[in-house]
Amino acid sequence: MQILTTLTQYDTRMFLWCVNSRHQAMLAKTARMISRTGDGYLQIALPVALALVAAEPGRNLLLATLLAFLVELPIYWVLKNSFQRRRPPDAIPTFSSVITASDKFSFPSGHTAAATLLATLVYLYFGMAALPLMVWAALVGASRVILGVHFPTDILAGATLGASIALISYSLI
Fold first, then answer.
1. Is 150 helix (H, G, I), strand (E, B) or coil?
2. How far is residue 129's CA from residue 116's CA, in Å, rounded to a whole number?
3. pLDDT tens column, 13-61
4. Residue 99 DSSP SS3
5. Of 137, 67, 70, 68, which is closest to residue 109 (Cα–Cα)?
6. Catalytic site residues?
């Protein structure tokens, strides 16, 4: 239990360092825009578009994405509701987030999981053409911390979940 306490303290310090920047107002505006791109529309639109224009790799990407989200969403929901980690505004009495999260718990980050899942699958099917998506997925995760709705380890867990499910889905298609 001591290691969990130490990890939580470290995570809180990292979080506060991220959100207490002198550039917070400017970062928050940009983070809000980036975070919105992770709301799920791209995770649907891109695989459908690639299925239409990229023949077999695009169709396989679409199938792998559908399978991956069928697996990822229930696992994400179980993890979030099992760990029940309070979001930063609830865990840190003096902190207020820039936005209000859509649910109560923060671990793992669903935005980060979904963005990383998509970026990983596109990388597996299209190689380095996915580099912009990998950068985008990292920015989506960072935006969630900057906006004050996730701790850094929520992002790490979301990215791990998304990449793991993507690899499993890819291996099955």
1. coil
2. 15
3. 888 877 777 777 788 889 999 999 999 899 999 999 999 999 999 999 9
4. coil
5. 137
6. 111, 150
66 token code pair = 């559908």
Q: What are phi and psi of 86, to 5 degrees?
A: -70, 145
The Cα–Cα gap between 3 and 22 comes to: 31
Give 143's contacts (C-beta < 8 A, 6+ positions apart).
30, 31, 32, 34, 35, 38, 111
| pTM exceeding 0.85 | yes
Query: Can you say how many angstroms the Cα of residue 88 is from the centroid of all Cα atoms in its chain?
Result: 16
Identity of the amino acid at 159? A
Where do the H-state alpha helices sit in 38-151?
41-53, 55-83, 88-91, 110-126, 131-146
